[in-house]
Predict the 3D structure of the following.
Amino acid sequence: MWQPHARDQGYLPIADHGLVGDGRGCALVGRDGAVSFLCVPRFDAPPLFASLLDRNNGGSFVLTPEGVRQSRQRYLEDTGVLVTEMRTATGIVEVTDAFLLKPGARLEEDTPAGLGELLRRARVTHGTVTLRIGVHPRGGARGQRDNHGWHLICPRQGLALHLHTSLPLTAPDNTTLTLHQGEELSLGLRWSARRAAPHRFSDALDDTIRAWQRWSAQVVDDVPRADLVRRSAITLKLLDHIENGAIVAAATSSLPERIGGTRNWDYRYAWIRDAAYAVFALRRIGLPMEAGGFLHWALTAAQGHPSPRVLYDVDGLPPPPETVDEELEGYRGSAPVRWGNAAAEQIQHDVYGEILDCALQWAATGGQFNRELWNRLAELAEQARTAWRHPDQGIWEVRTTGRPFTYSAAMCQVALDRAARLARRLNLPGDADIWAREARDLTERILRDAWDERAGALTEHLGATGGLDASLLALPLRRVVPADHPRMVATAQAITDRLGAGDGLLYRYLPKDFSDGLDQPEGAFLLCSFWLVDNLAGQGRTDEATELFEQLCTHANPLGLLPEQIDPGDGSFLGNFPQGLSHVGLLSSAVVLARTQRGIRPELSTQAWFQ
């Protein structure tokens, strides 16, 4: 649907962007035809363009018609190739954006498929359009013309670029061209060091489309909202570091969870907990290679460090220290802009369960355990036996002194349960009986010590009255407490009633009841609502679960992309975008509903993972 451009403080809405990438880096392209965020040659590199975080100083790659009045975006079917149509008083131009893939590239393999090049093709479909073209890297660039375009040196990013153009440009940073119906301009921005001859843009784009459509054909279609399931799968693939299987949490850094607030974090890294959640959904929708790649990355990262971390860079190494970028104003003035993530240094006891959960799924896919890896996993199970008794920062990564979070205790239960199952099923050394018994005891303790009789619900931490915490909706998904257990049913209802933000949305907690060190409101957390869908299905309330799922799907933007959070007041997107876990939540709920609608009871026990 054609829409006028609506800017606030000079910024497009977050929802007015699409994602393109090649499994190493990625970019956001706005409905105004500007590349407003691009990190290459890897997801967590310093951004080449970042006008999304500062419209004046961030830098951008502009390819837009003068006098644009309306625009719309779509993906070419079953691909990561984005099309932006823009209408002026005199004509319509169609801009196609893609990170080019090699001829014959197979995205299902763990070898680099990208050429290290962004193609931007503008084609006038009606009338006459005058295009503005400008490549403005953050920090500036030195340019030199050659036979095929321009060489650009970007000192701030340490990148040498080549801009290959199908029509001559008088300058790479400020040029206008008038095109008539049927005419087109192609721009190839290459950061790869390869010394290849310029290719035919049309052939390279066709190769890229074929590669995406070949890969997308694997995704199952016998699920509710198969269109959004397929788009979610493609989005996760765009966030998937193809060389080792790591999936970054989001494409961006520092998009705010509250406009004007300081809840701005760098999500261009991979979280262990994301692996545990994502792998199950990826396997169920027909993507075992991606599931296995993420599992292998998570176990390798966990094995390579003396103490487990909650997040790593795509190489499985600690991310850089968190820093504040004083030069950028932030999206709509929402400073600070941060690079790096200090949560990597936090104590979060859920990591024990996340890693052992990954290990169980690794075994379910036929993965083997050498002695060194199993000894490491058994050591983590032993640590989980007592870790839950000590305070931590929890799944929501609070920036306060820790407390004994219920979710963290539950994930220690997961660690013990999975270790016992692995030892028994695979005849591995370790005291499986003790682990299993302590897992059962910990479940009973959670049901007893986290229960608040006045609230009629399980609450955020053990041993004292706490606030409601929507992360507890994940307990049935992690096979800690069945969805239809009376105390879990009551907890799900209390969360719905008291954390409900309207329109099927949930807050993850209320700041007044849950000290997180920031004391600021935020948007509704989309993943929590998908967890509620799974709980309703597990309670046998299939119609309600289906209705909620369909309602949540309406929050996707026209491209089918989801953010981390939604502003309940106006439905606008908040937080980093696109958010991988929101898409994992959609996939998981679609699978749960498909199984439920076929008369298969939702999986409430880990044994089902071996089927």
Notes: Confidence is low (pLDDT under 50) at residues 604-611. Residues 307 and 380 are 9 Å apart (CA to CA). The longest helix spans residues 406-426.
